[in-house]
Structures are given as C-alpha cells and as structure tokens.
Specification:
Length: about 190
C-alpha cells in the first residue's frame, strides 16, 4: 500500500510508556481525544503470553496488505506491555469517524465475554488506564473526552464489549492523572 506509515513496533511498561510519551514532539498532528477498542480476535485465551514483535509484524500484513489501510491503531495493550504501533504523533486508522481526530487504543481480549476486572483482563485494564493517563497528561486531554469505539456513529461493532464500563474507565484515568501529576495535565 502506498503511503503506509511505518510502525514503531516497541513495547513498554507503563512507566517506560509515560517517559516515551513525554519525549515525543506533538507538532505535526495533535489528537483531540482517545478511542478505546478491544481486539475481540485474538482473545486473551488465543494470546496466553500476550503480544510479541511477530504479532506486530502480522498486524502490518493485515492492515496494510489485506485491508489496504495506510496505518493501523496507535497502541496494542496486553496484560504485560503497551505496544506502540502507529506513531502517536501521526493519525492512524481505527474508527471511521475519528481516525483524523483521535488516538486508537486496542486492548487484547474480547470484553463482550472476557472479564475486565479480574485475572489477565484486569492487567490489560490497568495497563490501558496507565497508557491513557500518560496520553491525557501529555496532551492536556480531559479524560471525560474518552470514547468507546461503539460510540462512533459509523460503526456497528459492540467494541470494546459490555464488560468495559466507560464511567469506570474515565474515573480510573482521571484518578491516575491526578496521582501522577497532581491533576495538572497541561500540554507540553
């Protein structure tokens, strides 16, 4: 596909991801909000060890070669790491109405059926909250602007599933931003 945006393909712990976000220059593209997705397939059971570098390369083939997209989502988050896929400082492809406006965050699992409050689902939840808190702080985004993929009027998916409760996600992101940054989330 012409104009494919090369992937970053790096994984981070929540602390490393926060430092990474603070190191970026947000001049060319600045998102207005964050959109939360789940992979649905693969499920947590299908990726018992989370994502690998090879999985990221497989996603390139899927998005670029099969779907003929110019990019993919920005993040893939599992129970161990936060993977940066499309560069955070460029628009990605993840939600029809919001690709040019928002960062797309894919969580490993199918939260229509997988539990989001215990076990590996809880670990994915916690890594996702950490990533969204970092992005909210760096970009000066109010966590209340977080959207779920299923809220996109041009989407029919139930993504990220009924077990992901938007008010709980927003409250957790807001609490972590306040804990880490004293509530100060001015853009850098």
């Amino acid at each position: 596909m012409p104009n494919w945006k090369p992937i970053v393909g790096l994984s981070f712990s929540p602390e490393q991801f926060d430092a990474y976000c603070h190191s970026l220059q947000w001049n060319a593209w600045r998102p207005s909000f964050l959109v939360l997705h789940n992979t649905a397939t693969p499920t947590l059971a299908q990726r018992p060890n989370g994502f690998t570098k090879q999985h990221m390369l497989n996603f390139v083939s899927f998005f670029r070669d099969q779907k003929k997209w110019s990019a993919g989502p920005h993040l893939f988050i599992d129970d161990k790491k936060i993977w940066v896929f499309t560069p955070l400082t460029m628009s990605g492809i993840h939600s029809p109405s919001w690709n040019k406006l928002a960062i797309g965050i894919e969580m490993l699992g199918n939260y229509e059926t997988d539990d989001f409050k215990t076990g590996r689902g809880l670990a994915v939840n916690q890594n996702t909250i950490a990533a969204m808190a970092s992005l909210s702080a760096v970009l000066g985004l109010d966590p209340a602007t977080i959207r779920l993929h299923k809220e996109d009027p041009k989407t029919t998916h139930k993504c990220p599933g009924k077990n992901v409760k938007k008010p709980e996600v927003i409250a957790a992101v807001r609490a972590l931003v306040e804990t880490r940054h004293g509530g100060d989330h001015a853009p850098e």
